Amino acid sequence: MDADAIETLLERKTTLRYLEVKDGRLFFDGCDTIELAKEYGTPVYVMSYSEIMGRLNELKEQFTDKYPKARVAYASKAFCTTGMYEILKKAGACIDVVSGGEIYAAEKAGFPAERVEFNGNNKLPEEIDQAVRYGVGRIILDGLQEIPLIEAACAKYQKKMNIMIRITPGVAASTHDYIVTGKKDSKFGIPLDEDIFLPIVKQVLDSEYLDFTGLHMHIGSQLFENDAYLEALNVLMDWAARIRQEFNADVKEVNFGGGYGATYIDEPRKPYSFFMDPMMELLKKRSEEIGMECPAAVIEPGRSIVAEAGITLYTVGQIKEIPGIRKYVSVDGGMGDNIRVALYQADYKGVVANKAEEQTDATVSLCGKYCESGDILIPEMKVPSSIAQGDIIALLSTGAYGFSMASNYNNNPIPGVVLVKEGKSAWMVKPQSYEQIIANHVIPDFI
Ligand SMILES: Cc1ncc(COP(=O)(O)O)c(C=O)c1O
């Protein structure tokens, strides 16, 4: 194996713990990726059970076992399947959902309703009805107009709902603009202008159907520093003090949101304790100053649990050399199974899985098969110069926001997801068929 490739794999070993090279082939959680490609076909998403459980155990050790009443509500949007809900159910985690579809999948998976927390900036009346009927543990209020909708559903089902209020703390986290959510100019959360925020709190407190539980924030995604979290938490606690002063009501829970960074290339991943410990210390200190009981802390990680747990396998098809310019290597997937590159220039690393020990002495552009020039997976990928049709490419760290953002662009089917665990493999999601893609198409009779 050439020095570059060895370095790359060793570097990644700290994070991609279940990736190994044996006899020149890439293995993931004990499974030979070339055999997986043969058995399940490509393109295919492969998720490592051991990596997901490893992250959930880290969260347990560094957060929920360490701090009383602390909860982890996995952000379903990162990767939502009934199998994933089964893993989370067994691990004792909660989940954050943002749509009727995620609620439906959770209910179908038999996920305990009280461990479901419902977020979203425009919850539809029917989604609110669905959440209240199911009996979710928390609704995270994102605007004034949600209140009568929640109350109506509560009246219909004769239930009370725990309400967290999502604030916009006015903090700009350093990450891509598309994944910043905590700055004041945001479609998420309630701005902290007292004539907007306090009447909403009062309305929740006064409602016979709503129980004011606490405050929620989420400042962005793929963050590696804790300063913006601390800044936002300070703002949140200022308002917890204000709520106490105005209404003699206590914030019983604080949700810090998600956003903890994962490794795609070589970003040094920080342990959860790097974020949690200072936040918990600040939460305790500010509660003491305010004279209130320290609220329960909740976090909503998504990406940091599943990003590195996923790889995508593709087969190399056409290779085009544009003399003096570049070589395009096309694979059988692309922006339909991974929109993150086109959407926000996300960076990925890839390996030619059947030539994982060969010297990477050529640079190519790895592109997809979709009809967009922007359908590039890795603009500059180092590969062995022997790269050829039929080789298997593994794109690394694709477990978050890949499958969950997949589309049927060009009527290409959404690939399936295979779960691997210590050499075992099984479908977690079967690949879509052409028939399923057009199942809901109708030809109107006036054509
Ligand atoms: C409210 C909320 N919570 C949690 C998350 C999960 O963030 P991440 O996957 O970066 O941990 C998001 C992501 O957008 C979010 O909007």
Give the key terms.
alpha/beta, eight-stranded parallel beta barrel, binds pyridoxal-5'-phosphate, 13 helices, 2 domains, single chain, Lyase, Ornithine Decarboxylase, Chain A, domain 1, 24% strand, TIM Barrel, 447 residues, nine-stranded mixed sheet
Structure description:
- The chain has 447 residues and is α/β, with parallel strands linked by helices.
- The protein folds into 2 domains: 3-48 and 307-437, Lyase, Ornithine Decarboxylase, Chain A, domain 1 (Beta Barrel); 119-301, Alanine racemase (TIM Barrel), CATH 3.20.20.
- Helix content is 32%, strand content 24%.
- Strands 4, 14, 15, 16, 17, 18, 19, 20 and 21 form a 9-stranded mixed beta sheet that branches. It has an 8-stranded parallel beta barrel with strand order 5-6-7-8-9-11-12-13, surrounded by 5 helices.
- Helix 5 packs parallel to helix 6 (125-134), helix 6 (125-134) crosses helix 7 and helix 9 (227-247) runs parallel beside helix 10.
- The longest helix has 21 residues, at 227-247.
- The relative contact order is 0.16.
- The model has no long low-confidence stretch (mean pLDDT 94).
- Pyridoxal-5'-phosphate binds at residues 75, 77-78, 96, 119, 181, 218, 221, 257-260, 300-304.
- CATH class group of the largest domain: Alpha Beta
Question: How far apart are the termini?
Answer: 61 Å
Largest beta-sheet details: 9 strands, mixed
Q: How many extended strands?
A: 21
Strand-helix topology:
Layout: H1 3-13, E1 19-22, E2 25-28, E3 31-32, H2 33-40, E4 44-48, H3 49-64, E5 71-75, H4 82-91, E6 94-97, H5 100-108, E7 116-118, H6 125-134, E8 138-141, H7 146-157, E9 161-168, E10 190-191, H8 194-206, E11 210-216, H9 227-247, E12 253-255, H10 272-290, E13 296-299, H11 303-306, E14 310-322, E15 326-331, H12 340-344, E16 350-352, E17 362-367, E18 376-383, E19 392-396, E20 417-421, E21 424-429, H13 434-437
Parallel strand pairs: 4-20, 5-6, 5-13, 6-7, 7-8, 8-9, 9-10, 9-11, 11-12, 12-13, 15-17
Antiparallel strand pairs: 1-2, 2-3, 4-14, 14-15, 14-19, 16-19, 17-18, 20-21
This protein binds pyridoxal-5'-phosphate.
Pyridoxal-5'-phosphate (PLP) binds at residues 75, 77-78, 96, 119, 181, 218, 221, 257-260, 300-304.
